[in-house]
Specification:
It is built from 2 helices and 3 strands; from the N terminus they run αβββα. With 73 residues, the protein is α+β, with helices and mostly antiparallel strands. Helix 1 crosses helix 2.
């Protein structure tokens, strides 16, 4: 099943989270931009569909939750 970055972000459901492909670098990254905090997490895979959808959703949710925990400190 093919999916897009927009599908991944939609399923995660965090309005501060985006998913980008690093052009020419061979990886993707999540970006969290909200509440005065900007953070990124690299995912080392060249093509989005090289990882299953559930793995992307899990990575994104875990990253977003960890980043939001930093805000609450």
């Amino acid at each position: 099943m093919m999916f897009t970055a927009a599908t991944v972000v939609h399923l995660i459901g965090d309005p501060c989270l985006k998913l980008y492909r690093a052009k020419g670098k061979g990886y993707w990254y999540f970006e969290f931009d909200g509440h005065g905090l900007l953070d990124t997490k690299i995912v080392l895979t060249e093509r989005l569909n090289d990882l299953p959808l559930h793995a992307w959703v899990n990575e994104g949710r875990t990253f977003a939750a960890a980043t939001r925990a930093k805000i609450e400190w």
